[in-house]
Amino acid sequence: MLLDRRRLLGTAAAMSAAALAPRLAWAQGPLAPPKASVRPVTETLHGVTVTDPYRWMETPSDPEWKPYLMGQNAYARSVLAKIPNREDLAARIGHVSGEVAAVNAVQPAGGMIFVEMRPAGANTFKLYVRDGAGGQSRLLFDPDTLASADTHYSLDYWTASPDGRYVALGSSPAGSENSVLRFMETATGKLLPEALDRAQWGAVSWTPDGQAVFVNRLKEGTKHGDPDHYLDSTCWLHRLNTDPATDVKVLAKGMYPNVPMQDIDAPVVFAQVGSDFAIGVLQSGVENEITAYLTPLAAAVAGKPVWTPICSQADAVTGAAVMGADLYLVTHKDASRYRIVKTTEARPAFAEGADAVPEGAAVLKSVAAARDGLYVQSLDSGLGQVFRLKHDGARTELKLPYPGAITGVSADPLADGCWFVLDSWVKPAALCYGAPDGEVTVTDIIPKPAIDVSPYESLEVKVKARDGTLVPLSIVYAKKTPRNGQAPLYLQAYGSYGLDLDPGFGPRVLPWLDLGGVFAVAHVRGGGELGEDWHKAGQKLTKPNTWRDCIDCAEYLIAQGWTSRPKLAVEGTSAGGIMIGRFLTERPDLLAVAIVRVGDSNALRFQFMEAGPANIPEFGSIDDAAGFQGLREMDALSHVGDGVKYPAILLTTGVNDPRVAPWEPGKFTARLQAASASGKPVILRVETDAGHGIGSTRKQRDDETADTYAFILWQTGDPRFQPKAS
What is the pTM of this model? Predict the structure, then answer.
């Protein structure tokens, strides 16, 4: 058990014409964006008057909303379509991304290896299985079989039964993440008759006999967009080949007096082969820290669990694994870089446990239980490590073939060793097997792409922020690129939820580097690269550190000759929208281009979206004074000033986005277009067959990347991307 937070038909000519035709149409699009109505809503919050000029956008049924959104998209697409050499750039990006096979997850079960992979040239991720590491991969599930002419499907999550006989898998249309859970027989690929809707979280755990699953489902009667869509979910036991209407309720709010729950708590139950107990977990919104209880497995299967406390949120447990009668709890309590506490079935309470792995220099990230021991993933100065902890406490370090980042550590409680993906900024991913003796085998499951990476290299530095804090900064570039301040530089940062931006091979970056660009990632406060203290230093009232760290990294890159102000582009995605939104409103003079991808730019209203309540633990609530103060400072919309010369800005959203509602970028776009005095473009690019980007196809990502690069190169003066004067 592992708990861890986290056909086209026709000739090539016909395909090229089909791809080009829409862009020719876009090029003849509107000459100006639609102007949004200003209907001010003013309110006083904690003694402060706040005016929202575009509150009406929060109502999807408003007759102006859809024409506004689609009008913005039409204008954005017409602007992008007129950039010279954009099509050639898109072709290069599509070619290189198509050369690489990408892996999302791997699971060993029943002597088989299950791998979620997007093969070279494919558009979506698919599920494959092979008999052992040396077997031949066989396609098990392809979401393209569910697609229609205008709607793609994605594989959202999956997990194989302990014996590998069945696979539980969730899929959804158009990037909506509205997953439907189905069950497939591994030997035949046959789907069982039942389908469970409202299974969005993907929190599925098999019973040891492989005949039932514990699964969290959203409540009935709500839909995408409703503020309470994710509240008051329930964990059920579903037996294979039965009607979901007969499922047994196992854990929900109000069921047990000794298990208090909030409406944002998502209850899930985990079981593992080889153990006689199950663990009930309450995941409180986006908080990494869990509340957990133990129950006899038989009682949980019967729908009559008897819950014994393991840990509360105050114990700061973020992950757990089970080996036999022992529990291993990953915690940052009194240990910013985490430690592992061992308890037992007989005495499961966190307070009665003892350190199995004390805090060290590396940040402990995850644990996975195998037959031969516990495999522990860690991160040290941006580099991944894995070691095995035996039952007797002895440690064996895995001997990695080269330094890099590690993701997706997985193990089978009935087999030895572990599996993981290893890559770096300039080295393609490899799927590796780590043996009990520490030896690591690079398997052939991910084919080596025909890409020469020798022209590229990366550099890791630490930048002194304005308060003296050293901020890690990764820089990726072609070796031939001169440091004379003339290179366009694409800087990314995130800084939320304690999540890392670890080194990873991104083939779409290579065409950018080939064009003379530099790519950089600022590992700003609010992330988890340096432990929980790093996370807390960019959260709520300390959130300004997030965008100011990025500003300071940008100034370092300029001072060191990597780029210059007229050549600098900065991007923030999702919660990183707070970072880029406040970067561009605080220092509009420092950058040439801002990219706001599905970004949170209206923090004062964030809690009123369907994903809003779950995010209160990370960002705060306007209902209390301190929360309001923090959110007001984060809110980019309210910091836009009239007559300011803002940089060129490309914003994006997806119509089906369940995480950051389209009205956030909609509002931000309208305000920036009305306020900016620079004359530079502010455009909103909309995907109608996508959501937050999770589940987007390779082609969708390729096209967005091409538009982004072309926009940046146009606005930073690259002569190859300058439209002809009309």
Answer: 0.95
